[in-house]
Amino acid sequence: MPTPPNPTLVHLAAALSEDDARELVRIFLNEYPTLRHAMAAGTPRQCYLAAHSLKSSAQHMGLEALAERAADLETRLGEPGGAIGADDLAGLDRDFQEHEKSLQAFAADEPPALTSAG
User: Fold this and answer.
1) Which residues, 6 or more positions from 22, have their beta carbon under 8 angstroms from its beta carbon?
2) How far apart are the C-alpha atoms of 54 and 95, rounded to whole Å?
3) Which residues span the domain enclosing 51?
């Protein structure tokens, strides 16, 4: 089984279990497109909440650049007239894609199925 791809996930796997850490990575990978869409097409409030959620999730995954970018967007969106542009979304995508394959590889390992002895 692949080991966690960064120190943050190593610590998460040690605190929970590798299986639980893998499940959290799967959730993050599944949620990124939804959060990204909310930032692209949502109301200002939805954009702010999505940036906040992405910041926190990226921190838990050990994706520092993505977390910092989302934090910057959250701050900007919390100010009057704050908005997200195409360059911001492209930057989020670059930061996400930089780690996507290693996260997918780690998350892909399913725990072995239990078999009944009989």
Assistant:
1) 106, 107, 109
2) 12
3) 7-108
